[in-house]
Amino acid sequence: MPSFIEVVATALFVIAIVHTFSVPVFARLANRNGPHAGLWHMLAEVEAVFGVWAFVLVIIMALLAGTDSAVSYLDSRNFTEPAFVFAIMVVSASRPIIELVNAVVRVLARITPLRQELATFFITLSIVPLAGSFITEPAAMTLAALMLRDAYFRRPGQAGFKYMTLGVLFVNVSIGGVLTAYAAPPVLMVAHTFGWDTAFMSTHFGWRAAVAVFINAGVLTLVCRKYLLSGQIGGAEPDTRPRVPPIVILIHLLCLSGIVLGAHHPVVFLAILLMFIGYAHAYARHQNPLLIREGLMVGFFLAGLVVLGGMQKWWLQDLLGGLEPIVLYWGATALTAVTDNAALTYLGSLVEGTSDLWRYMLVAGAVTGGGLTVIANAPNPAGFSILKNFFPDGAISPMKLLLSALLPTAVAAFMFLLPHSFS
Q: What is the pLDDT of residues 341-352, one digit of tens each?
């Protein structure tokens, strides 16, 4: 039987999910500039939702069980992922890294047998998400979202195009990190327990994900080709500043690599981040404003998810353990939409006596559903934070995001359910 505080935590978790889907309502109230506009604006910040309700949970725990119990629970949580996403978001969003990635995309676009406008859009939604298997999914999400923002999202209106693009981006980043065993949070949570290495991931998951990513990006490029070629979509202003010197790009790349390699050690990657911030301020003429606030808000969101999600084991683990593999796949896909997919796979890894097929279906379902909502995959809040101001009322509708992600999610499901060696 669950404890009273676990039931309270689950109730708050449900309230937080409902709050997430209610964000557009609060955004419209904030835009009326009434006497409580500031409060409505705070409640309209998706990045604050889970942090706020996690704070409520800690207060309730302190009142019911004492301050020491509440603090002990916080101490038992692992906040490495929120801190890492903050660090990688700040560094990967820096101007030298963006210039480097843009240069690579331009080279790839020139050798692609497509018009430049189509090739650039296609590569941004395919190659960059797949790069998440090597530079981590949060970094890939940050880079792709910034490139989309600067090249396609700045013009007002065009909400349909923006939602379709966001749906494909979230799904492709979620499945694009499974070519290796260390880059996607839901894979990282189980790789050691299940004995999966990068060779296993690439042969069982990677090629399926890559095909789905290319199909999703290709279909959207085809659907939007008229607008991409006509110039109706776009709006990037040319950067007239001198190019960033190669040595500055190299130093930024070394910082990014160091943070990726030290992803499991907060002391290491936070130390590198602090050195990076100091260097960036010393050479501010080569920088855009660092995404400190945005990164902190995303970290706050994920930390809140860690606190609230840690109390959901009492119902999630038993539910997962009782499902047959194919039912588990669809169940994991659906559950991912309302809980972080890394937490889902971690709880599944605690179930004893599972088969190889059961484990495959758990992880495949978790990454398939990772684009359905902002809470489904850890990198999603980063893309959400970067792009939300370019949607109507400065907010992204969770329901419209869900609908936009359904087709690319179906493509991913088709690929992951193809016959495999576990059958």
A: 888 888 888 787
